[in-house]
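To the team - adenosine-5'-triphosphate complex, inputs and output below.
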Amino acid sequence: MSTTDPAGTGTDARPADARPAGTTAAGRAADHGADHAADRPAAELRGVSQVFGDFTAVDGVDLSIRRGALTTLLGPSGCGKTTTLRMLAGYSAPTSGTILIDGEDATRTPPEKRGLGMVFQSYALFPHLSVAENVGYGLKLRRVPADERARRVAETLDLVGLGHLAGSKPKKLSGGQQQRVALARAIAIRPKLLLLDEPLSNLDARLRVQMRAEIRRIQHETGLTVVLVTHDQDEALEMSDDMVLMRAGRIMQQGAPQSVFPAPANRFVAEFLGYENFVSAADGTSLTVRPEHLVVEGSEGGAGRPAASPAGGLHLTGTVTDVAYRGVDQLVTVAAIDDSGARVRLVSDVRATGTSSLAPGDDVAVTAPASRLVALAD
Ligand code: ATP
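Output:
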């Protein structure tokens, strides 16, 4: 797909000035020599809240956006993701707290002075302008001279693989192509931050998956700092350098997907990331284990004392309530009693090939090794 790196070498063949300021190796070195700008977060929220009437949409958020990284704000509908992004963009002022962009207090800076690019769920392209004119729009507003503008539009269209459609009107383009034009328009101004609000949600499932990879590629090639809002955990896991899980206006957990996914901090995060089995250990610890790590086997005469402990693993007995065949795998649901005496529903996800012929009503042993158990804070 890459038009700037046809050999797929992973190197950026574009002239250094085609990339956002401070993102080239030379730019980084210069910034570093000057004032350690490369080490400074691209943006920071310090104690930021947004209150609408008596409703607190964002509640004292502290967040550091790493330069050159893709950060996702992830969480269920209404958790405050868009409100947080809008405050970063300058479309709404925080009720309290401070927003820093590039180390400078931007809390009261209007959107057009923040130097940010933004792409919304609706692409909001100008229908009467050509693709090239749409992409050049922000440059024109910034009074970039025509020849420089033409060069940057061409480079940016190449970056998103749309050079051949420069003269087309948006309505002639597919949804995916329109999305790329919107991206190109936001990137052409070389934004300090690229803010994306559910940019893929209007695309069909296949295109959405393609565009995830495409946005990652563009981000790698440009070195842009990207903040993306999504409610889709797969999208966040696949795309993020840093992911920030929000609930009711607060950050529940943040970090690289590789560190958050295997170790959710609490039940909310675990459930959001697809953990299904929650049991209490004898000492009151709340434990969870992913369905694919839970082993269900026929038990003959019951398997000892029901037990779950962070160190000893999970050993429960129960009764199969459902077996669902799903092609590549099979879900076995078991009703059991945990150490607190609570009735728990456990789901085991096993590869369909060679699985036993378990059926509802069967007595089973449900086990998981200690290494697969995650202790939750709540
Ligand atoms: P979604 O995925 O549905 O967009 P979100 O996580 O982006 O959700 P926000 O749009 O940030 O959530 O909204 C957070 C909460 O704040 C919601 O309950 C919403 O109804 C409320 N809210 C947002 N904007 C306003 C406003 N201008 N006035 C009053 N309430 C608002």
